[in-house]
Design brief:
Structural class: alpha+beta
Shape: flat
Number of strands: 3
Distance between the termini: 21 Å
Largest sheet: 3 strands, antiparallel
Strand content: 25-35%
Order of helices and strands: HEHEE
Strand order of the largest sheet: 1-3-2
Radius of gyration: 16 Å
Number of helices: 2
Oligomer: single chain
Helix content: 10-25%
Length: about 90
């Protein structure tokens, strides 16, 4: 998620780290599974789609865990990701 830097200050949500505001931009949005952490293989389909459609990755990828499951002691996570493009 993102939050406006002034709102973050009012809510005391930023600590000693750097907080920066990112301007809205075009992104490719997708959901994907990873077990249990994101690897290059997890995001390869999205990167391939971006390349096939003539776009370029423009900045850092933002991902968020939306579901964690455990089956037979195996952990699987469902992520949603935003891939900034130009």
């Amino acid at each position: 998620f993102t939050i406006n830097i002034d709102d973050a200050k009012k809510l005391n949500l930023y600590a000693d780290g750097v907080v920066k505001e990112i301007a809205p931009r075009r992104c490719v949005y997708t959901t994907f599974h990873a077990e249990p952490v994101i690897s290059a293989a997890s995001i390869a389909p999205a990167l391939d789609w971006i390349d096939r459609h003539g776009f370029k990755l423009a900045d850092d990828i933002l991902c968020r865990t939306i579901k964690i499951t455990f089956l037979d002691r195996e952990e699987s996570r469902l992520y949603e990701g935003w891939f900034p493009i130009e």
